[in-house]
Amino acid sequence: MYVYIYNGGRKEVEVDMSFCNEIKKRFIRLSRGQRKVAQFVIDNPNIIATHIASDVGKLIGVSESTVIRFCYAMELSGFSELQERIKEDLIGAKNTDIGDHPLITKKQEPLFSNVMNRDITSILNTIQLVEENQFEQTVKWMHESNFIYVLGFRHSSPSASFLSNTLGNYRRHVKQIQHDVEDIVQQISGMDEQSLLFVLALDAVLEDVLTITKIARNKNVKIVAITNSGLSPIREYADIVFTVGAQKQASAETIIASHSLIHSLVEGMVAQNKRQYTTFQKSNAQIESNFLFLEKTKII
């Protein structure tokens, strides 16, 4: 909303209500395929304005009919009206230079709201990208594997720590590989076909990460990668790849989406044998409680 001030009075005019904002409001009510179209429209308005519906569908990876159904879901008459709405927004953005006008102020969206809405969009986009059969297979491997290894450096390190710590609350033999030459060699030596390796690749993949993954593959280790890029080189070596986040997001901004996916995977593992995992969690919590009690006793 922009506020125009004139003649000592105050007039509020809604001029920032773009069609993309309308899409965001209806996003959660759209079907899975329509959400893919919606995200593409938000991220690529220029392509929508200059391409036909069938070409847009091919770029997104959906049918032309899905593109048209998205238009109907947005209460438009068809793709032509969608193009007109997007063109109007693009022209308006070029012709409007509100920020330089001395008598006009813009009401800013609160920072927390802006950031949290980006996180929500990132998670919603991830939901569309997850294949159910791959999710179920990964959960099965997590439940059946003797050892689970977690690999992730730099920007991927927080997600790697979250995964290893969360898994450690429910089962034994979970190890996070540290960026240390001696530790890496030792961890690799224990991997076999009964092991599962999670590779967190939420930034430019280090050569060390690729080397470890290649060795694990040669040992017939099951490999699941979580990445924010459709072009990540880790895809060549992983059995299953999950893509997280929204298009054009920085690696740091995909962490929330990766943590949400990790949470879902762990919940799926626990559901395989809830009694087993709940018992271990309670036992683990009791051991930690006794340890803290002993530490306090020593201090006293």
Automatic annotation (TrEMBL):
Residues in HTH rpiR-type domain copies: 17-93
Recorded GO molecular functions are: carbohydrate derivative binding; DNA binding; DNA-binding transcription factor activity
Q: Which GO terms describe its biological process?
A: carbohydrate derivative metabolic process
The lineage's top-level taxon is Bacteria
Protein's UniProt keywords contain Transcription: yes
Outline the extent of the SIS domain.
138-275
Spell out the CDD domains in the cross-references: SIS_RpiR (cd05013)
Q: Name one Pfam family in it.
A: SIS
Return the PROSITE patterns for the record.
HTH_RPIR (PS51071), SIS (PS51464)
Its keywords, alphabetically, are: DNA-binding, Transcription, Transcription regulation
Protein name as annotated = MurR/RpiR family transcriptional regulator
According to the entry, what is the taxonomic lineage of the organism?
Answer: Bacteria, Bacillati, Bacillota, Bacilli, Bacillales
